[in-house]
Amino acid sequence: MSGIINKVKNHKKAAALLVLFLMIIAVFVISGMYLPAAVIMAVSVANELTVRKMNRQKAPFGTYSKIRNADCLVIGDISPKAAQNLSGSDKTVSIYLPGCTLAGAYEVLRHTFSILKEDGGQAMLVVRKKNIDKTGYSPFEISFFHAVTINRLELDNSEYLLRLPILFTPIKSLMILAGTRGVKSATGLCDKEISAFCEERGFTGEILEV
Amino acid sequence: MDASRLIFGTGVSSSKDYDSLKQVIFAAVERGILAFDTAPSYGTEEGLGRIFKELSHEMGIDRERLFIQTKIDAWQMQESDGNVYKHAESAMKKLGVSYLDSLLIHWPVPEYFDRTWECLVELKNDGIVRKTGICNIRFRHLEKYAECGGLPDVVQIERNPLRTCEKEIVFCHEHGIEVQAYSPLCKMDERIRDSEILKEVSQKYGKSLGQTVLRWHIDTGVTPVFTSKKLERVREYAGIFDFKLSREDMALVASLNIDYKMYLESMACPGL
Ligand SMILES: NC(=O)c1ccc[n+]([C@@H]2O[C@H](COP(=O)([O-])OP(=O)(O)OC[C@H]3O[C@@H](n4cnc5c(N)ncnc54)[C@H](OP(=O)(O)O)[C@@H]3O)[C@@H](O)[C@H]2O)c1
């Protein structure tokens, strides 16, 4: 009996999500904002694929990732192509986080640094000058976070919100692209803390303001 | 030397439904494998508890002959702020035992590690846990723990021919720490399955490739924690105690090392 009730509830939930999805699409089309929306969607999907590739457990039936022991990990406000040029190595993994703060990029580094080779790797955090001292995490960054981090930082832990920010936090996502953003508190960071973190783990860390 | 040197894992790739799990575990026990690894996140603690009872009724295998190991998961460390006593108790209740042979920290989340470790040491002092351990650590962690005088009894790390962990193993052996290798076959990754080197070494001993790799772990002083859903494979892997690899062949197996890591630690344990 409870199985049937759950099924009905799930169907209702799916229908409500579909309607919401169509309404949001309609708003974007009518307001002419479909281009930024498409960009955000593409970034979200690319990040999700990176997470899946990096974390086998999330995609047990997918192709097991062979991306390991990278020379360089570039995280932040920089396109994958530019990141590749910046690092100069073929074994570069890049994570594009539009409008990220230093705190956001650093937290993503804490989650992804194991992709680097064990000794002598390099991490680059790329942050726009105007965002360097800002605090907070966007859904782009949160999609990389472990549940323990989400709890520790008291962030919104909605699966949908994390996977497709443009659909579920459209205003915030567009604000990120426009350069203004809603913020959540994050502790202040200094370069020293980040470089000590990297050094202890056997790789070098660099913060680039753009 | 016998199959008691193998640990049967009940993690991601193992059978999850009760009947299949019972079948493979009975097959393992029939071949002398008496050590089992679980964790709350595997969802097998309760099932194992039932199976252990049935092992006692149907095969006369009592608790003392078994080696039962479980773990403290990251969320448990966080939820209790490291006071994991109640989580150990709940694991014992599920497993139907009054003590644990070994309790490991699954992922040493830095924010909650110190208190969790203290708690594990207390559990050991109270006789509730026989061995304490930590999974997923590297050489730098071991060095740090040694400085603080807090070395574990057991270390469980991802180790297989694609990732030989020389530094960690030398350190552990020098300090009397038992090393367990999880994913000892790297889930039979094609770089292991198709390796000409491994095929040659296996043929030389008339053994299967999987048996050869498991034997390499034993011969290098490491206890493999393997799993399979297949009864035949469990039986096959229990049959590795009638041969021994030569030094040269051990070196050949280790020559596959490329420091490949299946489970990215920082994704599962941020800031590790
Ligand atoms: N501490 C930790 O963080 C951690 C992490 C991961 C795992 N573990 C522990 O380690 C245990 C083993 O881990 P694992 O499953 O990754 O290790 P594994 O034993 O290396 O891999 C098991 C997988 O390999 C397959 N396999 C074995 N031999 C094969 C062959 N000859 N041909 C094709 N496939 C073959 C099995 O399939 P079949 O079922 O078809 O035989 C199974 O899917 C887990 O159960 C768990 O207890 C601990």
Write a brief structural summary.
The complex is a heterodimer of chains A (210) and B (272). Chain A has 210 residues and is an alpha/beta fold.
Question: What features would you describe in this structure?
Answer:
The complex is a heterodimer of chains A (210) and B (272). By secondary structure, chain A is α/β, with parallel strands linked by helices. Chain A is built from ten helices and four strands. Chain A has helices spanning 2-31, 34-54, 80-87, 102-112, 139-142, 147-152, 159-163, 165-168, 170-178, 191-200; strands at 72-76, 92-96, 121-127, 203-209. The longest helix of chain A has 30 residues, at 2-31. In chain A, 35% of the residues are buried. Chain B is globular and about 50 Å long. Chain B has one domain: TIM Barrel. An eight-stranded parallel beta barrel of chain B has the order 1-2-3-4-5-6-7-8, surrounded by four helices. Chain B contains 13 helices and eight strands. Chain B is α/β, with parallel strands linked by helices. Classes of the chains: A alpha/beta (210), B alpha/beta (272). The A-B interface holds A 51, 54-57, 60, 64, 68-69, 107, 110-115, 117-118, 145-149, 151-152, 197, 200-202 and B 12, 74-75, 78, 109, 111, 138, 140, 189, 258-272. The site of NADP nicotinamide-adenine-dinucleotide phosphate (NAP) has 26 residues of chain B, from strand 8. Residues 9-11, 13-14, 37, 106, 135-136, 156, 182-188, 210, 225-230, 233, 263 of chain B line the site of NADP nicotinamide-adenine-dinucleotide phosphate.
Shape of chain A: globular
Shape of chain B: globular
- Major interchain interface with per-chain residue totals: A-B, 29 and 24 residues
Architecture per CATH nomenclature, i.e. the level-2 architecture of chain B: Alpha-Beta Barrel
Question: Describe the biggest sheet of chain B?
Answer: 8 strands, parallel, barrel
